[in-house]
């Protein structure tokens, strides 16, 4: 074929000539077809346009419509109907001056017709080819005559040639197929001629034939594989020198049947059959021969078969050892990727046992010190626990997983733990030291069929974490030194993973302990809110989510929820620092926005303090939501720093997410925080949470908020505990991030437990305040507190009158304690001091501090409040 294509032979020249002739014929036929189609298209377009125009011009009512005042109104619908029915592109009716009455585009009605109309006005027919806006077309103009034969108007119809030229699409593919068939026939004829001419010589000259024969002969006799060619009659046609040597063939073997050459029956039958064979191993005399056989007529050659012979006597032994080495390498590779997939000590030990069975041993057990299982360093001399086990059969009498084991000094395990060296026991029945461990159990082990073992210490640096034991029962051969080396390599890799898991367990336990010590263990007593909470740790370990409930003065309660980005000890420690700071700042009775501002400055200082030596700073990401609820006014003041908004479940079951201005996360600085104030009805539920509740890898926060809304909507009239349970039931058992959740149901301090008075700025008003307080305490049944309360209020009101500014107010709250509050418009806060013996004043606030359980000052937008609490009797 290559010779034919390149034209180096007669067949090639004939092939090229035929291709050129066929291509010329195809081009000529296509050109003729295109010209004929164009002519037919023009003729068809003219005939169709003429038929439509004449039919419309001679239609009843056309001439009469032209004489009406508004011909367009009558003729436009008809013209469009005819155009659509006949498939022409336009039907235009015009007067003898060429002014259109109809057109497919109404905006062209009333304009002059483009084309020749003079012959048609004279009573003739005009056919012309024009290039219109829609392409090349044929249009015909015919006259419209009245009954007297007078031309009263004109009708023009036209159609583009592209709309009637479908013949080419039908005939051109047929023509191309015919050309392709001609090319195929020409190619086939040329191939037959080439095959006829080149069959005997394959296109080679005498010198090329001689050189090819010399090369083939040299290769045939020099190759290190035996080569046989057998005809379809089972006669040997060719055998090279290596085949004579491997098979021991006689000198006159060629031209004889392979069944007569003295070969064994199996090998002779294979050679005579001519069937396909791939690396079949036959024993010929004292040699193992790998035989490959293929037929010679697969590509049109003569019938028969070609056979190659390879001596594999020595290779078989080498391949066996190579297979064992390959399997061991595979096992070590699998150990590298399959052991230590988790940071769990027990799971890592189980992965070692599962990998070893059954590829290396029939049973495998791993024994670790108890301290290792808890993340601590091993303590030699203590008992071990069986951490993992695997076997090819169930019901083995070996120690079960989970049992404590104390090995006797003569046992192989004890020797490994003491010396740090591996021990091989080829025959357990002959090992008295091993049998001394537990005579009854060891007898059961031997009866079960276990006969050999290897014990390898699990060493990580200078630490011995335990021992790994490999037992053999199915294979009769005992463990040998090569298998000991493999066991040590497997255990060495597993020991590193177990030690990593141990260290992680220790760090995780420390982080969990730290976090639990930093989170509130119990909620403080307060009467403003009924609270339930939940905290779920993340899958990846300890996180930085926290929450708190902080009683404030005036029976108010602060709720705080925060989140430190990240996991581990750093996040837990940062969380503890922020929680402590919130405790301290809340004692100042600051508004939520001011408290978050101070917290933002603290996080900024933390980032500055933790700048590393190279100047790079580890930025602390944290969010926080702080809310203060007042049970007297039922007002809740909130502010948030990059935290998800709270949810409110109203008493009627309606759920909403109130608009709380979203400040920046803590630590960014430079931007103020804003507060929002809500008025909550009694028995409303305020829900605070961290982002782990509503956001994870599989959904965004908007979807999570809708799921939370749905869960809260299913809990009308539910208690906070039931609400927490319902909300968390839709989460996975171990979420991808920490989840902190607080549900607080509001209570109201009724008017029967609140008393208020306005006090004039007159010292004489103090006695009136004492009298009013006495009456109120008598109504509340708190006569025992009468004296101390009068003393406290007398001092606080006197200070307000003397040092403060009007208006001055007094309020008593009966909650868990009796709360006395005195407010004034001054922002100056009194300070507790020790008065000298010669001082006339300065002892009143000291007496208040001694009598009251707690006292303090909080600032309000229009002044301050000094308060004091007394325990109820």
Automatic annotation (TrEMBL):
What is a single cellular component term in the Gene Ontology annotation? plasma membrane
UniProt keyword annotation of Disulfide bond present: no
Tell me yes or no: is Protein biosynthesis among this UniProt entry's keywords: no
Q: Coiled coil located at which positions?
A: none
Pinpoint the PPM-type phosphatase domain residues.
526-746
Cite a single GO BP annotation: phosphorelay signal transduction system
Keywords (alphabetical) are: ATP-binding, Cell membrane, Hydrolase, Kinase, Membrane, Nucleotide-binding, Phosphoprotein, Transferase, Transmembrane, Transmembrane helix, Two-component regulatory system
- Give this protein's Gene Ontology molecular function annotations: ATP binding; kinase activity; phosphatase activity
What range(s) does the GAF domain occupy? 344-508
Q: Which spans are transmembrane here?
A: 174-193
Give the InterPro entries listed for this entry. Bact_Sigma-Reg, GAF, GAF-like_dom_sf, HATPase_C_sf, HATPase_dom, PAS-like_dom_sf, PPM-type-like_dom_sf, PPM-type_phosphatase-like_dom
Location in the cell: Cell membrane
Q: What is its main location?
A: membrane
The way this protein sits in the membrane is described as: Multi-pass membrane protein
The protein, known as: Histidine kinase
Q: Which domain of life is it from?
A: Bacteria
């Amino acid at each position: 074929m290559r010779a034919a294509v390149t034209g180096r032979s007669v067949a090639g020249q004939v092939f090229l000539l035929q291709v050129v002739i066929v291509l010329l014929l195809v081009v000529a036929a296509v050109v003729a077809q295109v010209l004929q189609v164009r002519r037919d298209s023009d003729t068809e377009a003219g005939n169709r346009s003429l038929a439509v125009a004449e039919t419309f011009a001679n239609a009843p009512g056309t001439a009469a419509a032209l004489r009406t005042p508004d011909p367009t109104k009558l003729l436009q619908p008809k013209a469009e109907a005819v155009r659509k029915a006949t498939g022409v592109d336009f039907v235009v009716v015009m007067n003898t001056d060429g002014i259109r009455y109809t057109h497919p585009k109404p905006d062209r009605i009333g304009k002059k017709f483009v084309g020749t109309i003079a012959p048609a006005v004279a009573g003739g027919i005009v056919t012309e080819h024009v290039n219109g806006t829609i392409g090349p077309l044929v249009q015909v103009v015919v006259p419209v005559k009245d009954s007297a034969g007078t031309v009263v108007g004109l009708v023009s119809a036209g159609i583009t040639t592209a709309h009637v030229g479908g013949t080419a699409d039908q005939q051109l593919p047929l023509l191309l197929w015919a050309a392709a068939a001609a090319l195929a026939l020409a190619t086939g004829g040329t191939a037959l001629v080439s095959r006829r001419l080149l069959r005997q010589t394959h296109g080679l000259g005498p010198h090329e034939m001689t050189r090819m024969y010399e090369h083939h002969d040299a290769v045939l006799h020099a190759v290190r594989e035996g080569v046989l060619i057998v005809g379809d009659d089972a006669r040997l046609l060719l055998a090279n020198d290596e085949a004579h040597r491997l098979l021991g063939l006689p000198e006159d073997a060629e031209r004889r049947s392979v069944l007569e050459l003295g070969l064994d029956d199996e090998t002779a039958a294979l050679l005579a059959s001519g069937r396909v064979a791939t690396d079949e191993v036959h024993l010929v005399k004292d040699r193992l021969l790998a035989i490959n056989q293929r037929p010679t007529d697969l590509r049109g050659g003569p019938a028969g078969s070609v056979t190659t012979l390879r001596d594999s006597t020595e290779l078989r032994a080498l391949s066996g050892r190579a297979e064992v080495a390959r399997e061991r390498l595979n096992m070590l590779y699998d150990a590298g990727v399959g052991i230590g997939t988790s940071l769990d000590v027990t799971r890592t030990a189980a992965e070692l046992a599962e990998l070893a069975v059954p590829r290396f041993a029939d049973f495998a057990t791993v024994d670790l010190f108890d301290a290792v299982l808890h993340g601590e360093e091993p303590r030699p001399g203590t008992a071990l626990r069986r951490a993992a086990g695997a076997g090819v059969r169930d019901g083995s009498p070996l120690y079960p997983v989970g049992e404590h084991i104390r090995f006797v000094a003569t046992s192989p395990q004890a020797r490994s733990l003491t010396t740090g060296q591996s021990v091989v026991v080829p025959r357990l029945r002959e090992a008295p030291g091993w049998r001394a461990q537990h005579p009854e159990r060891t007898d059961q082990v031997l009866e079960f069929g276990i006969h050999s073992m290897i014990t390898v210490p699990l060493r990580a640096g200078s630490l011995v974490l335990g021992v790994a034991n490999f037992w053999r029962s199915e294979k009769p051969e005992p463990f040998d030194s090569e298998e000991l080396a493999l066991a040590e390599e497997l255990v060495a890799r597993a020991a590193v993973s177990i030690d990593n898991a141990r260290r992680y367990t220790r760090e995780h336990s420390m982080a969990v302990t730290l976090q639990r010590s930093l989170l509130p263990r119990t909620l403080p007593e307060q009467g403003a809110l009924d609270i339930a909470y939940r905290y779920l740790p993340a899958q990846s370990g300890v996180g930085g989510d926290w929450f708190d409930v902080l009683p404030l003065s005036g029976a108010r309660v602060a709720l705080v929820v925060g989140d430190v980005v990240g996991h581990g000890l750093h996040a837990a420690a940062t969380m503890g620092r922020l929680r402590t700071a919130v405790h301290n700042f809340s004692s100042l009775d600051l508004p939520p926005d001011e408290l978050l501002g101070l917290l933002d400055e603290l996080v900024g200082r933390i980032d500055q303090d933790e700048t590393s030596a190279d100047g790079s700073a580890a930025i602390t990401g944290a969010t926080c939501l702080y809310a203060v609820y007042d049970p007297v006014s039922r007002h809740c003041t909130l502010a948030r720093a990059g935290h998800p908004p709270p949810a409110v479940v109203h008493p009627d079951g309606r759920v909403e997410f109130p608009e709380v201005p979203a400040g920046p996360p803590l630590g960014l600085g430079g931007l103020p925080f804003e507060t929002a104030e809500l008025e909550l009805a009694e028995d409303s539920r305020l829900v605070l949470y961290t982002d782990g509740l509503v956001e994870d890898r599989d959904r965004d926060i908007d979807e999570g908020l809708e799921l939370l809304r749905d869960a809260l909507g299913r809990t009308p009239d539910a208690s906070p505990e039931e609400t927490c349970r319902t909300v968390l039931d839709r989460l996975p058992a171990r979420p991808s991030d920490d989840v902190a959740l607080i549900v607080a149901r509001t209570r109201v301090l009724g008017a029967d437990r609140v008393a208020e008075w306005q006090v004039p700025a007159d010292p004489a008003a103090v006695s009136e305040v004492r009298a009013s307080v006495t009456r109120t305490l008598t109504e509340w049944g708190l006569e025992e507190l009468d004296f101390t309360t009068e003393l406290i209020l007398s001092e606080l009101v006197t200070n307000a009158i003397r040092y403060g500014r009007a208006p001055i107010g007094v309020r008593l709250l009966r909650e868990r304690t009796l709360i006395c509050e005195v407010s004034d418009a001054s922002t100056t806060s009194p300070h507790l001091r020790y008065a000298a013996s010669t001082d006339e004043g300065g002892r009143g606030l000291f007496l208040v501090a001694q009598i009251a359980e707690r006292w303090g000052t909080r600032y309000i937008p229009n002044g301050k409040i000094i308060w004091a609490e007394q325990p109820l009797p």
